[in-house]
Amino acid sequence: MSLTGQKRVAASLLKVGQSRIWIDPEQVEKVESAITKAEIRRLIHEGVVAARPKGGVSRGRHRLKIAKKTGRGPGSKKGSRHIGKIPWVGKIRILRSRLKELRNKRIITKQVYRKLVQMAKGGAFRNTAHLNEYLEAHNLTRRR
Fold this sequence. Notes:
mainly alpha; 2 domains; two-stranded antiparallel ribbon; 7 helices; 144 residues; single chain; 2 strands; CATH 1.10.1650.10
């Protein structure tokens, strides 16, 4: 079942390397029986033997490098880590605990609580004073 000879002849006819030769797996017997150049040429014409497309070099890594250079790709964040996540975590924990406190003391309703938690998540409040100011401005506290 060795097709090395047929592959070699086909490679020379198609002017490609032997690794790029494709043989239809369903018609291997037909290719095995072909031993002359003319027979291989006929098989190429029929589409039983063909040349695989040439493989290229991916530009993905190069594009990443360009993106990083222009400040767009992954790994483009500059400055210390204290600018972003750590202060945010501290702030959001304080706001959420204040909102839970207001809900548990029944100062705000569950619906208002849900709305305000989502707003806090979206960065609507700078601090608890700003949150309290918002509650007063929009009359979201329960009447006593």
